[in-house]
């Protein structure tokens, strides 16, 4: 059964969801029982940008607007995407989509996306939804809420433990100075007869030579290999791996960040969230020695 979508964005605005022109991509829709089918497309002014994404964010957002056309009770609030599961991307660069949204039997929905020829573009096995009232949406859109943005604040760290006095080790070649034992890799560290140190340092770049993409890829692959080996070794459960970069993050604002090592921070932050207490990130200025590192590990 065809669904009139001529006023769909006016209805969404009344519920507290206001979309700009780029995100108003729904062209047509149909309903069959609990299923909704829709056609969405990017506006001409941004269609050429589709090739820069696996799936253009505005096109994906427009596809999810079909959720609002699912049957719901009169007193039910607006249902918004909350948690994604089983997401697969089959093709890239789509400018228009055919969409199927249906209940997944667990309170959420499945989303199937196809191009105009019916070729699969993406699939979401389960997208859980959370209900929000108009009042809650109004609060979220208020000036007070929009100004409540979190930021990163850096504060000086005071040394509270002696990291230099033989309690640390280094993986690979390092310029961090003398005082710690040096091991070629994690396997060499674990194989050592000595008691494993409480702090092990892995120093990253900057790496000279090669294109930036190649350097970034090689460096991330190397760090990922160390991180995976680290969490797989039970004997290292009581040790911390300190991943050190130089110029990989800005602290005071205005500093030049080395894009060759900055991606390491994103990778290790993921590891920190999955394995709390196992990893530390440290960024040192050029020429800084282990004494500066010790201050940040207290």
**Main sheet overview:** 7 strands, antiparallel
| N→C terminal distance | 66 Å
C-alpha geometry: elongated
Average pLDDT metric: 83
The amount of beta strand, in percent, is 25-35%
Features:
single chain; 298 residues; 5-stranded parallel β-sheet; alpha/beta; Rossmann fold; elongated; 2 domains; Thiol Ester Dehydrase, Chain A
Topology:
Blueprint (H helix, E strand, L loop, with lengths): L1 E2 L4 H7 L11 E7 L2 E7 L2 H4 L9 H8 L13 E12 L6 E8 L5 E6 L5 E13 L1 H8 L1 H4 L21 E4 L9 E3 L2 H6 L7 E5 L8 H21 L7 E7 L15 H13 L4 E6 L5 H7 L2
Parallel strand pairs: 8-9, 8-10, 10-11, 11-12
Antiparallel strand pairs: 1-2, 2-3, 3-5, 4-7, 5-6, 6-7
Helix pairs in contact: 7-8
